[in-house]
Specification:
The complex is a heterodimer. By secondary structure, chain A is of the alpha/beta class. Chain A folds into two domains: 134 residues, D-Maltodextrin-Binding Protein, domain 2; 227 residues, no CATH class. Chain A contains 16 helices and six strands. In chain A, helix 9 packs across helix 15. Chain B is of the alpha/beta class. Chain B has two domains: 215 residues, 3-Layer(aba) Sandwich (Rossmann fold), CATH 3.40.50.300; 61 residues, Alpha-Beta Plaits (2-Layer Sandwich). Chain B contains ten helices and 14 strands. In chain B, the strands form three sheets. In chain B, strands 6-7-8-3-9-10 form a six-stranded mixed beta sheet, with helices on both faces. Chain B starts with a strand and ends with a helix. Classes of the chains: A alpha/beta, B alpha/beta.
């Protein structure tokens, strides 16, 4: 153990004393936080060029209202009230008389106008939209543009059209609009937490309004921090071991320690680096959030779990990555192995949003109990406002501990053979053979 | 007492038998030279003694104990390929290796050896700033910094200039005087002849020589005639009883065939030219090495 710690200490000092580590420690959250900040800032960056849209209205009674609604919107929203700066595009709607004999040609003509930038989009309102049940096939509203799937104008146009349809249907039913003014009043659903009771006083506490930061930001920050720690503590082991092998340092070290001690020394250094990084981030995060008066959102109950899962994750992936590093002869070998080796760390990032949206679904639960994903996904789920049932982190922990023991064993066997094997490429067959036969 | 004992040790890498049924005893306090052509099994044998490779069959004892698991702190090992952390300072590297071996008074030892090897001005310099010779000396110091009882050096003189080679040689002999057992592999037959108490030669994984230089040479009898004469090599080609001629320019080395009489050969040479000097000698280690490694037919063709 003493020798393992000496190797770990040497590697740890070599890593944290470098300027790269300190710069990385500062820059990583800036880049990651900057990415989110960029999204927040850029979401309001819209193209303010006016958008001209032609409407083929087969009903003859909707487009006029659309023009009125667009004019009202343009007057109210296009210019900033105080700075008078243009902040949104104006929607300019023009009517096109339907050419029922040559409708296809008319549509093609309008499409070509869009292609040549004379027009932004065209809308075709089917003749039966007011009473769709009479002729459902003719009850269509088609919006044509070059990017209709992601289009603010299309999203806006839904409301004036549907409001007008309601008016027309009321009129057909002989009901005056003034009688049911509330028909056009939309009520949004407020997201609330659960009502609770104080154990000591018995007082029933009101439910707290759900906060987007709490629901999204905290789980994402926890997941990204786990990922960042893996990038700092586990992933570099692949190249570090490869370098020590190719520079022949490994054989010198093996003159003093057993291969397993050598590998565990490297993994422990990764653990140390991650602990340093995460401790700095968490302490700094708690301080900053508290200073901002948002201390109530800090998930203190998750932090111990974060450290437990992070340590196991570094041991689990670090051992495998160190083992794989020992099979590499040069940087090219290491490069070709790094992506497949990192895939189990990347997959939880890819499924972040489905899990965040439904943290208690069977999909989220089972994936978070799959040991290679558990540390990242369980922390993500635990950080969501509702949390997870108490037994799940413990079951996940059991799986991760078991899998980590297996990973260390397999990594150690691959490491022992690979570290002195020169000239053999890291083929899957070789790696599997070394893992099984040792 | 033997520092190292190998009993019928075999090591195979897939289809290749790297070491085949090898038995060897290395007495305590001696200098034992491992010789053999490239790929003959020297490094594999050394790695098995270090417990870096495990033998497939056979038994290895170090200091009388069956070698299992832990590499002992009582052995210093310098592999053939040198490996030092380039970003570390000389003193830090030596401290690290000394601590790994659980050495005592490492700081004092570092100062002693750096001064002895004229490296003390470089103590605070990074390894990457050192020349190859200096790095090799640092590597040597790292091997012996914990004062191990057994030192294993895999080709310690390779790539060194004569001055640095002498420094290492002297240090090795000093260690031996203090009771350290030294095993080293080398391709430098001259160095092996001069330094080693015992010489072991491995060829194609099998032991082909093992003993003192005298014992080895005795096996090959006095079949070598070294001669200086006025004429060149032309006169030797017609001699009876000569198996091989080595032309060294000013001197010729003739290997006599079995049962040929050196006196008769000399008499024949005298009849043809004037002899300046001659010596009836045992074959050198170099000569023995070549005889084992190169089949006779090939040797004759080359001659």
């Amino acid at each position: 153990m003493r020798k393992t710690l000496q190797i770990a200490l040497r590697d740890y000092k070599a890593a944290v004393k470098t300027k790269g580590f300190i710069i990385g420690l500062v820059l990583a959250p800036i880049f990651m936080g900057g990415g989110f900040l960029g999204i927040l800032l850029l979401k309001d960056q819209v193209d303010t060029t006016d958008k001209k849209i032609s409407v083929i209205d087969h009903t003859g009674v909707i487009a006029q209202e659309l023009i009125v609604a667009a004019e009202e919107r343009n007057a109210a929203e296009v210019y900033d009230k105080t700075s008078e700066e243009k902040i949104k595009p104006a929607y300019l709607i023009e009517l096109v008389v339907p050419d029922t004999s040559q409708l296809k040609a008319q549509r093609l003509d309008l499409s070509n106008k869009i292609r040549s930038n004379q027009l932004y989009a065209f809308l075709e309102i089917g003749p039966a939209v007011i009473h769709p049940e009479q002729n459902s096939e003719a009850a269509y509203i088609n919006y044509h543009s070059e990017k209709s799937a992601l289009d603010d104008l299309r999203r806006w146009i839904v409301w004036p059209i549907n409001n007008q349809l309601r008016r027309l249907r009321l009129a057909d039913a002989g009901i005056a609009e003034s009688q049911v003014k509330d028909l056009f009043h939309w009520v949004s659903v407020e997201g609330m937490g659960l009502v609770s009771q104080d154990v000591e006083t018995g007082k029933v506490e009101d439910a707290r309004k759900s906060n987007e930061a709490e629901a999204v930001a905290i789980p994402i920050v926890m997941l990204f921090m786990m990922f960042l720690m893996m990038m700092m503590g586990a992933v570099p082991l692949l190249t570090a071991v490869m370098e020590e092998k190719s520079m022949r340092i490994a054989e010198v070290i093996l003159g003093s320690v057993r291969p397993f001690q050598f590998m565990m020394g490297k993994v422990l250094s990764g653990v140390g680096i991650s602990l340093t990084g995460s401790a700095i981030y968490i302490l700094a995060g708690i301080y900053v959030i508290s200073q901002m008066g948002l201390g109530e959102f800090i998930p203190y109950h998750i932090i111990p779990w974060f450290f437990i899962f992070m340590l196991l994750n570094i041991f689990m992936f670090g051992s495998i990555l160190a083992g794989l590093g020992a099979t590499c002869n040069d940087a090219k070998d290491a490069q070709s192995l790094s992506f497949p080796a990192m895939l189990p760390m990347l997959l939880p990032m890819f499924i972040l949003f489905p899990v965040l949206k439904e943290p208690l679904s069977a999909f989220s639960t089972w994936l978070s109990l799959f040991p290679p994903f558990t540390p990242m996904l369980m922390i993500l789920r635990q950080s969501t406002p509702g949390g997870v049932p108490d037994w799940q982190p413990w079951l996940g922990l059991f799986g991760v501990v078991t899998f980590t023991v297996l990973a260390v064993w397999v990594g150690g066997r691959i490491f022992r053979v690979g570290i002195l094997m020169q000239g053999q490429p890291p083929k899957l067959a070789n790696i599997v053979r070394w893992a099984i036969k040792g | 007492m033997n520092s190292v004992e190998l009993e019928n040790v075999t090591k195979t890498f897939r289809d290749v038998v790297a070491v085949n049924d090898l038995s060897l005893n290395v007495p305590q306090g001696c200098v034992y030279g491992f010789i053999g052509p490239n790929g003959s099994g020297k490094t594999t044998t050394l790695r098995m003694i270090m417990n870096i490779f495990y033998p497939d069959n056979g038994l290895i004892r170090v200091f009388g104990e069956k070698l299992h698991g832990a590499c002992t702190d009582r052995i210093g090992y310098m592999p053939e390929e040198r490996g030092l952390y380039k970003n570390m300072k000389v003193k830090e590297v030596l401290q690290f290796y000394g601590n790994l071996k659980n050495g005592k008074n490492i700081a004092k030892e570092i100062d002693y050896w750096l001064k002895k090897f004229d490296l003390h001005p470089w103590a605070s310099k990074k390894i990457e700033t050192l020349s190859k010779g200096m790095s090799q000396k640092v590597q040597f110091i790292a091997t012996i910094i914990s004062r191990p009882e057994l030192v294993i050096l895999d080709e310690p003189f390779t790539g060194l200039d004569p001055v640095n080679a002498d420094i290492i040689k002297d240090a090795v002999l000093d260690l031996q005087k203090q009771g350290t057992t030294i095993i080293f592999s080398t391709h430098d037959m001259n160095m092996a002849e001069k330094m080693c108490d015992f010489i072991f030669m491995i060829f194609n994984g099998k032991k082909v020589l093992d003993g003192t230089l005298e014992n080895i040479q005795d096996k090959y009898s006095s079949d070598t005639l070294r001669i200086r004469c006025d004429d060149g090599s032309a006169i030797f080609s017609e001699l009876q009883g000569v198996e091989k001629i080595n032309n060294f320019g000013h001197m010729h080395e003739l290997r006599l065939s079995k049962n040929s009489d050196p006196q008769k050969v000399l008499a024949e040479i005298i009849s043809k030219t004037r002899i300046q000097s001659f010596e009836i000698a045992k074959p050198s280690l170099h000569n023995i090495f070549v005889r084992i490694v190169r089949p006779e037919g090939k040797e004759d063709n080359d001659a």
